[in-house]
Every structure is written in C-alpha cells, then in structure tokens.
Amino acid sequence: MKTIYLIRHAKSDWNNPSIRDIDRPLNSRGQRDAPFMAKMLAGRGAAPDKLVSSPANRALTTASYFAAELGIPLDQILENKTIYEASPTSLLREISHLDEQWNCVLLFGHNPTFTDVANRFSNQYIPNMPTCGVCKIESSATQWAEMDPINSQLTEFHFPKQYFPA
Length: 166
Hints:
Layout: E1 2-8, H1 28-43, E2 50-53, H2 57-70, E3 77-79, H3 88-96, E4 104-109, H4 113-120, E5 134-139, E6 152-158
Parallel strand pairs: 1-4, 2-3, 2-4
Antiparallel strand pairs: 1-5, 5-6
Helix pairs in contact: 1-2
C-alpha cells in the first residue's frame, strides 16, 4: 500500500515585491498554520518514510515545520526542483518515480497543480486547496507507478481555516 500526502505550502509573504517568487518566505499566518497543521498530522498518526519538497523557500519552510513535528532531521528533506513549477502531469510523473522503499511520502508544493492532482483522486470536487492544506491519498498499489484513480482515493482533506475560522 502506498500513501501520499499533498501539502500545499503555508501562506507566503507578498510584502516585498523585489523578492523573487522562489525566495518568498512565509508570512505570520503561514508561521502559525504550518506548525499547527504539522502537529495535527502527527496526531493523526502520520509516519512518512520521506519528505519531498519544492525548492521554493515557502515550501521548504513548511516542510521543515512538519519534519520537526514528526522527528525527522531537516537534512532528510529531499528537494525536487520539478515540483516548483510542475504541471499535474509532471507531478504525477514525479510521484510514479518515487523510491519504492518509501510507502508513505509527504510532498510539499504549490497550486494550482496540487488542487488538480487532488481532484483526480477525489470523489468530491475541491475548488481550491488552501495554503497549508493537506490531502491524504491512499492506494492499494504496491508500486508508485501503479497509483491511479481506480486503485487510489483521497481519504482526508484538512486545511487551517477548519481550525482557525476567519
């Protein structure tokens, strides 16, 4: 059985227009939400074999909060540059090539791709995966390349505003 968590980066800071997109940090809400969602996921018993992240600062910072909560050393976060500007097809290709020794992976990245990929495995339409949203996709497949909507399903969807109403 394979399990992938799609985790959209937490809310980023847009206050400095001179910062390149890839370098944008988290804003104060993102710094609140990421550790909270990491703790929520740890409390639900998530036990990932690997954390894989876009190289964007906001995604890596989000991943670092999850690593800390799950007791995973920061140097164990694998950066994958393809995730940064991935299309849904290229993200699914990256998933299909994950190391077969890993049965549970947390993948940190961006919209609109994460929303699109989550919807491929969901029986209910998700209009937008919010920042720091977490989608759990479980599969009966024994290999990552075998994951598809027939043998895999989105089984959990969590996001900060469920816990912090506006």
